[in-house]
Design goal:
By secondary structure, the chain is mainly alpha-helical. It is built from nine helices and no strands. Helix 1 packs parallel to helix 3, helix 2 runs antiparallel to helix 3 and helix 5 packs antiparallel against helix 6. The relative contact order is 0.11. The mean pLDDT is 88.
Amino acid sequence: AADLIDVEAGLIDLALSAMLHGDTDMVEEILLPMANDGNVKAQLFMGIAFQQGNRAAEGIKWLQRAAEQGYGPGQKKLASTYENGIGVPLDYVLAYKWYNLAAAWESSLAQNNNPSWQARNYLAEKMPPEQIAEAQKLSREWKAKPWKEVKQLIP
């Protein structure tokens, strides 16, 4: 199992290098098998690469898949996507929800510097109270889903 983790980490590093060079095709070739198997890091980086490669709709799907499985960095990137309207309509309520969930994930790791809390609080300054209440309700009702369920939800 440790060898598999090392191989996956090496492949993700290789894909990140390809992403830095703008080679979305190489990123997809490296990460797609892992992403299709439910690897949330691969899904996150597929989402980022597709957004950078002007394939925003595909990028959103991969970010949603990582976020729905409870992966904090995927939740944070998805929040930023909604906050800035990158490939999706601008939606502060959904942005707040995903920042809130990412912040909880970061807190579970005992991180002293919690950038998702900061982003969520900054966003809240732009929102009316009823939108904040709706976003908090969505956050409370959300539950992480297993990959098998996410695959069916976000084809």
